[in-house]
Each structure stands twice: as structure tokens, then as C-alpha cells.
Specification:
The complex is a heterodimer of chains A (530) and B (192).
Chain A (H helix, E strand, L loop, with lengths): L1 E6 H11 L2 E6 L6 H14 L3 E4 L3 H13 L3 E7 H6 L1 H10 L5 E7 L13 H7 L2 E3 L4 H18 L3 E6 H4 L1 E7 L13 H4 L3 H13 L1 H10 L4 E3 L7 E6 H10 L8 E5 L1 E2 L3 H10 L2 E5 L5 H7 L8 E3 L14 H7 L27 H13 L6 E4 L17 E2 L4 H11 L5 E6 H7 L1 H10 L3 E7 L15 H10 L7 E4 L6 H13 L3 E7 L3 H8 L1
Parallel strand pairs in A: 2-3, 2-4, 4-5, 5-7, 6-7, 10-11, 10-13, 13-14, 15-16, 15-17, 17-18, 18-20, 19-20
Antiparallel strand pairs in A: 1-8, 6-12, 9-11
Chain B lengths: L1 E9 L4 H14 L3 E5 L10 E9 L13 E6 L2 H5 L5 E10 L12 H9 L3 E5 L1 H8 L5 H10 L6 H13 L3 H20 L1
Parallel strand pairs in B: 1-4, 4-5, 5-6
Antiparallel strand pairs in B: 1-3, 2-3
Helix pairs in contact in B: 1-6, 4-5, 4-7, 5-7, 6-7
Bound molecules: thiamine diphosphate (TPP) and iron/sulfur cluster.
């Protein structure tokens, strides 16, 4: 047994490797990126398994599913909204089942530190009716990841692990164990994997048949801990994931603990919940994310004779990330004595585009080109360039989800908005900009798409990108974008006037045009130099 | 024995390197720790903080509760002020006096320093000057680590050992200036 300092993300990754992982796939996204980053480094060192940055999460999911079909242990990881992109194969893989152990890691971002929403991946576990884990600390992240592959093979289903930013991006020592060897190749059965209705109905029936066993398995799991306080029947606490830590933190200095149940697996360990609820008058549910557990035990009508407190009842805020202070308050403990704030108004320090960033020059040129164009709209996408929303640029008017800018610009153009401009990064374009552009090219939609080719996935820390340079130009041309309206600019201050003119010309063209702004991210340039 | 530290600064100032050194030194000393850090959006010139918890016993929360921090260790004075309400009444602020002005409404530096001196225990060092003296202005984070070192529950030898691992690979000159930055920071703190 050795001890290593690991991020929560890395603990999951290493747990998977030690469980005999053969292949891992991901698309970057905070707070999940460090899982595959770690695996890519380890794979390069050991040459023992495959670790690949995929084009998007759906592709990543299908690649991992293919490895599982082949009988090998596979992992796919992404941020929570990545699971939306991968939802189709995800839901269907609950019907095909997994052959080699298959771990799906979805990292939620309560508080939206760097996300568009704070959706809770536990609903996906329930939606697909598979088994799920929610670790509360690094050691559990490692241990659960290891166990998850066995559980996946036992039930013949993918297993989902839900992480949250706080654990993903926290570092702590982890005790590791001897690795297990990888599986041999062993193909899945066609009758299970061909989802024709005749097979799918049978497989769905089998999935439903396994539900009770999954509940029992969760009830027996060492990760779900029930403690009933003998003489104390007042309060019982149900806490999951990092919320459990906040609960223990708040009461650490006190002599006794109220009855509690730590929930770490899904479907809910119903028997344990019944025992706890039966023992106490009031149940306080602590969970980071949506009131997933609270809503299930509360139901429509509540529990006769019992009070359930949580996010729905207003005992805890309904949105945002939990903190030790919020949980302390919900437990009725007074705040700790602390220093008062200085009273000086503290200017905020939001993130900004780096000095010299190519996106800044593109936005300056775009703003200039659009001056006087009333009713215009710039649909943006997600990446560093979303910071173009902030002063001094104020250059964009929407940011919804990966790839949305092109489809939205087309829709707006179809109903009469002009100019309709889309701004999309190279990685985002490869992720989900290609298909909407294919449609717009066939229709020759009156819009201008600006692809920001900085040769990297900058926002999430500089992972590789698929659609860059010559390859990107050939790809766009291949989609049917007319050659004379496929232009490139080099976003540099010295080219400002020239770039403004090109953008103006293409906006003036009442059909589809694509402008590729080519200049490398300065952070990546710096990394290469050092 | 426990120590809770809020590390603060601006993205790019090397907060996570300080955390790396403390993490590894703590492991060498046989301490347990949890260190929650910020990745992603906040790194692009935005405010960055890390919650660093050291203990010889169980650590539950990755985040430090308000009123529980024993120290704020900041590479930037305005950022040090941001987290005062995390500090215990008898906690200490160790900070640089060198402002990082990448926002239009940065308050007057005199007011910032005055507010810092109002904290019951504060150590304010001119990290820019000391880092330059050590040979590289980049080593301001290590100056601050040196300034904090006398107040940490970690052995100085463990900190220095980790600095050697971290910077040793970047050539003897880099290592030497970082070790010097550490020593200068430590001396300045004890003299302040
Ligand atoms: C479905 C989904 N996957 C991943 C992310 C995380 N994410 C945000 S922006 C981005 C990529 C940005 O790369 P690029 O488009 O090249 O722009 P750059 O940051 O380089 O300017 C990623 C992966 C997300 N928000 N949604
Ligand atoms: S990381 Fe790269 S793309 Fe992002 S703001 Fe900085 S220079 Fe621009």
C-alpha cells in the first residue's frame, strides 16, 4: 500500500487503472478534465492502456462502449453537461448492457463555478435505472472506482460515478492497492447488443428485473453508513457526498452525533432510509446539487408524523453549492467567531482574456465591422471567447451550449434577422459545429460564421483539438461552403483594418460565409517555449 | 494539531505552486491534508483561492468554515482582504504589499494596506522587491511562502526539500533564486 497525493479526479482515474482499465475516453470540461489528463500522462508513461481525447462526449461514450463490448474495462468521463451530449448512447447502453466493466464519470458543478447550469447527474442514474456511486472523499473516489468495474460486470450494466467540483478539484493523499490485470478480449452477444425492438424489449425487462437486486446491493455496501443514536429520537440526518463531510465538520467538536445515514450509492438504499426515518421525528437531508434524495423520501404527500427538512423545505438554499457554513446553519449551530470583513469595498476580479489573446483582436474587428448594423446579433459559443461578453468588448449576445451558435444563427436568419453572426472556437466547432454548418451550407443560409482557430481547447486548459489549420479549412470546404466565401484572417492589431473589411464584405454577402480567424492561443505558445 | 490556511492571489501568480510545496511537505511530515483549489474560468487573471487544511487527525470538509482559518497567505494585498471573514479572531494574515492591478476599479493601495494592518496579526512583505533581490520577480509566491514558514506547523526542512524537487529540474540558477526568495521572505517576516 502506498500513499499518493491526488486530485479527486485523479483518484478516480488511478482507481480505474488499478481495476484493470484498458481504454479511457473523454472530452474536456471543468471539473472533469483532470481525469483524462492524468490517464493520458500515465498511458504515455506505461503504454499499458489507451487514453484518448475524443471529438465530443457522445463519441467518447460510444468509443468506451465499444471497448466494453469487446470485453475490456472502459471508462468515459466528462462534465455534467457532457452527459447531455452523450445521453443517447448512455440511455441505450442501459439496455444493451455492458460486457467489460464500464465506468461513466460525470462531474457536476454545483454553484456553476464554470458551467452553464448546475444539473445533477444522479437523475441520469435514475433515468437509466443503473447503479451509481457518489464518493465523499478521495479515498472513496479511488476505492469506489475500483469497485465500480466489478459491479458493472456483476450487473452487466454501465455504472455511473457522480463527482462534484469540490472533490474533483481537491487534493489529498490516497492509499492505493495492488493493480488487477486487464480483461481478455471477449465479445458481447449480438442478441443483446442489437437493439431491434424484439431484443430491446427483452433487455429492458431484464434491466427492470435487476432493480431490486441493485437496491439490496446498495443496502449492503460498506459505503452507505447508518448510525442510530440510542437515546435520541429527535433528529436524523441523511447526507450524501461532500455534504456528509460538512455535516461531520459542523459537529466535530461535540460529544455525540445525532442518528445519521451516509448515502453513497444509487438507487437509494431504501431499507436503510426506512430504518433511519423510523427512528427519528425529523429528517434533515443534506445533498450538494438538486434535492434528489429529499424529493424521493418526501414524495407528494410527505411522511405521516415526520418532518422532512432540506432544500425543498427551505432549510437549505435551493440553488448554489453547499458549504460547511450553510450546513452548520441548517444544523442549528451558531456561526463560529470570525474576523469582520474590512469594510473596504472590494472590487471584484473576474476572469479576463489574456493579454495578447487572439480573440480580443477578432472581437475588436467584429465590433467595428458591425458598427451601425442595427438589429444584428452575434451568437456565441462556449470557450475563452465567451469572455467577449464582458467589457470592454461586449461583443456577443448569446452562449447556450456547445455548438449552439451556428444552429441559432441559422434559425434567426431564417426568420429574418440580419446580420446573423456565429462565433465559435475550433474545439467547439469540431465538437458540434460541423453538423449545423452542413445544413446551413446546403441551404446557403444568409449568415456569417467566424471560427476562432487558436489551435487548442484553451478554456479547459489546452487539450488538443481536431479541427485546426489546413485540416479545418478543408473540412469546412468539404461541407459545401462556397470557396469564395471561405476567408481567413490573422487576428493581430496590425491587421485590424484589413480584418474589419473582410468581415464587412462577408456580412454583406447575403448567403453563407465562413471566416476562420487563425492565431495560436498565447498561453499554449508560452507552454511550448518553456 | 491542525492548521487551516486560505491561499489567495490572482490567476498566474503561482498560488498552486505554493499549495504544491505545502502539500508535499505535509506528506513528508506525516500530516494529513485536504487542499481544495480552483481550476478553469478563475485562472484567467481572476481571483484565485485555495483552501489548505493540515492536521494530524481526521479532516472532514475540503472547505474551511468561516472563522476556522488560522492563516490567510496571499500573494496580493487586495486578495488577502477578500477572505478576512474566514479568519479566526486570533488568526494571522501573511501577504504581499505589491498590488496586481488588472482591474479598472482597484482601490487605493494605502487604504488596502491600512485595512490589512487592522487585522490583529498581520505580516506584510514587499514581495516584488524581495523577489527581484533574489534574482527573479517570478518568485514572489516563494517569498510569501518563506514569510509564512515560521508560522506553519510544517518543518522548514520539508518545505525546502519540496522546493528543491519543484525547481531543481529547471536548472541551478532557478533553484537558487527560489531558495533565496524563501530566505528573504522569512527574514522580512520575522523583522516586520
Ligand atoms: C457539452 C460540453 N462539453 C464541454 C464543455 C466545456 N467546455 C467549455 S468551452 C470548451 C472548449 C473551448 O475550446 P474552443 O472552442 O477551442 O475555444 P477556446 O477556449 O480555445 O477559445 C469546453 C470543452 C461544455 N461547456 N459543454
Ligand atoms: S488561454 Fe488562450 S484563448 Fe484563452 S484567453 Fe488566454 S490566450 Fe486567449
Amino acid at each position: 500500500m502506498s500513499r499518493q497525493i491526488l486530485l479527486g479526479d485523479e483518484a478516480v482515474a488511478l482507481g480505474a487503472v488499478h481495476a484493470g482499465l484498458s481504454a479511457a475516453y473523454s472530452y474536456p470540461g471543468t471539473p472533469a478534465s483532470e481525469i483524462l489528463e492524468y490517464l493520458v500522462r500515465l498511458a504515455a508513461e506505461t503504454q499499458a492502456f489507451t487514453a484518448v481525447w475524443s471529438v465530443n462526449e457522445k463519441v467518447a461514450y460510444e468509443e468506451a462502449l465499444g471497448a466494453s463490448f469487446a470485453g475490456k474495462r472502459a471508462l468515459v468521463s466528462f462534465k455534467h453537461v457532457g452527459l447531455n451530449v452523450a445521453a443517447d448512447p448512455f440511455m441505450n447502453s442501459a439496455i444493451t448492457g455492458a460486457n467489460g466493466g464500464f465506468l461513466v464519470v460525470s462531474a457536476d458543478d454545483p454553484g456553476m463555478h464554470s458551467s452553464q447550469n448546475e444539473q445533477d447527474s444522479r437523475y441520469y442514474v435514475q433515468f437509466a435505472q443503473i447503479f451509481g456511486y457518489e464518493p465523499s472523499d478521495h479515498q472513496e473516489a479511488y476505492d469506489m472506482a475500483r469497485e465500480a468495474f466489478d459491479v458493472s460486470e456483476r450487473f452487466g450494466l454501465p455504472v455511473l460515478m457522480r463527482l462534484v467540483t469540490r472533490l474533483s478539484h481537491s487534493r489529498s493523499p490516497v492509499a492505493t492497492r495492488e493493480p488487477r490485470p486487464q480483461n481478455e478480449l471477449n465479445k458481447g452477444l449480438a442478441k443483446d447488443w442489437i437493439l431491434l425492438p424484439v431484443n430491446a424489449r427483452r433487455r429492458f425487462g431484464q434491466l427492470l428485473d435487476r432493480q431490486a437486486e441493485m437496491v439490496r446491493f446498495g443496502e449492503a455496501s460498506r459505503f452507505n453508513v447508518l448510525r442510530l443514536a440510542e437515546g435520541d429520537r429527535k433528529l436524523g440526518v441523511i447526507a450524501s457526498g461532500v455534504a456528509y463531510n460538512y455535516f461531520r465538520e459542523a459537529l466535530a467538536g461535540e460529544p455525540g452525533l445525532p442518528s445519521f445515514l451516509k448515502v453513497s450509492t444509487y438507487p437509494l438504499p431504501e431499507g436503510l432510509i426506512r430504518e433511519l426515518v423510523g427512528h427519528v421525528e425529523t429528517v434533515l437531508v443534506l445533498e450538494d446539487g438538486y434535492p434528489f434524495i429529499e424529493r424521493q423520501i418526501q414524495g407528494l404527500f410527505g411522511i405521516p408524523g415526520k418532518t422532512v427538512l432540506g432544500k425543498l423545505s427551505g432549510a437549505l438554499p435551493a440553488s448554489g453549492e453547499l458549504s460547511p457554513d450553510i450546513v452548520r446553519r441548517a444544523l442549528g449551530r451558531p456561526p463560529l467567531p470570525a474576523l469582520a470583513p474590512s469594510g473596504l469595498p472590494l472590487a471584484g476580479r473576474p476572469p479576463q482574456l489574456c493579454v495578447g489573446c487572439s480573440h480580443a483582436d477578432t472581437f475588436k474587428a467584429l465590433n467595428k465591422a458591425l458598427e451601425g448594423a442595427s438589429g444584428s446579433n452575434v451568437f456565441s459559443d462556449i470557450g475563452c471567447y465567451t469572455l467577449g461578453a464582458l467589457p470592454p468588448y461586449n461583443a456577443i449576445h448569446s452562449c447556450v451550449c456547445m455548438g449552439a451558435s451556428i444552429g441559432m444563427a441559422r434559425g434567426a436568419s431564417d426568420v429574418g434577422l440580419h446580420p446573423a453572426v456565429s462565433v465559435i472556437g475550433d474545439s467547439t466547432f469540431a465538437h458540434s459545429g460541423i453538423t449545423p454548418l452542413l445544413g446551413a451550407a446546403q441551404a446557403d443560409t444568409d449568415m456569417t460564421v467566424i471560427i476562432l482557430d487558436n489551435a487548442t481547447t484553451a478554456m479547459t486548459g489546452g487539450q488538443p483539438t481536431y479541427g485546426s489549420g489546413e485540416r479545418l479549412l478543408r473540412l469546412v470546404e468539404g461541407l459545401g461552403v462556397p470557396k469564395e466565401h471561405l476567408r481567413t484572417i490573422e487576428p493581430l492589431p496590425k491587421n485590424h483594418d484589413k480584418n474589419v473589411q473582410i468581415i464587412k464584405d462577408e456580412i454583406g454577402h447575403r448567403g453563407l460565409s465562413v471566416i476562420v480567424a487563425v492565431r495560436e492561443c498565447v498561453q499554449e505558445q508560452r507552454k511550448k517555449r518553456s | 494539531m491542525k492548521q487551516d490556511i486560505i491561499l489567495a492571489g490572482v490567476g498566474g501568480q503561482g498560488i498552486l505552486s505554493i499549495a504544491y510545496v505545502i502539500d508535499n511537505a505535509a506528506l513528508a511530515d506525516g500530516l494529513f491534508f485536504k487542499q481544495a483549489e480552483v481550476h478553469g474560468m478563475a485562472q484567467r487573471g481572476g481571483a484565485v483561492q485555495s483552501h489548505m487544511r493540515l492536521s494530524d487527525g481526521t479532516i472532514w470538509s475540503d472547505l474551511i468554515p468561516k472563522g476556522e482559518a488560522d492563516m490567510i497567505l496571499s500573494v496580493e494585498p487586495l486578495e488577502a482582504l477578500r477572505y478576512l471573514d474566514y479568519l479566526r479572531p486570533d488568526g494571522i494574515v501573511v501577504t504581499s504589499s505589491t498590488p496586481f492591478r488588472n482591474i479598472p476599479d482597484y482601490p487605493e493601495i494605502d487604504k488596502v494596506l491600512e485595512a490589512l494592518h487592522k487585522a490583529p496579526r498581520s505580516v506584510v512583505v514587499d514581495s516584488e522587491k524581495l523577489a527581484k533581490e533574489a534574482g527573479t520577480v517570478k518568485a514572489q509566491n516563494v517569498v510569501l511562502l518563506g514569510a509564512a514558514s515560521s508560522f506553519l506547523i510544517i518543518k522548514e526542512a520539508s518545505l525546502l526539500g519540496t522546493i528543491e524537487t519543484l525547481f531543481g529540474g529547471r536548472g541551478p540558477a532557478v533553484l537558487e533564486s527560489n531558495l533565496k526568495a524563501f530566505a528573504l521572505g522569512k527574514k522580512a517576516a520575522l523583522g516586520s
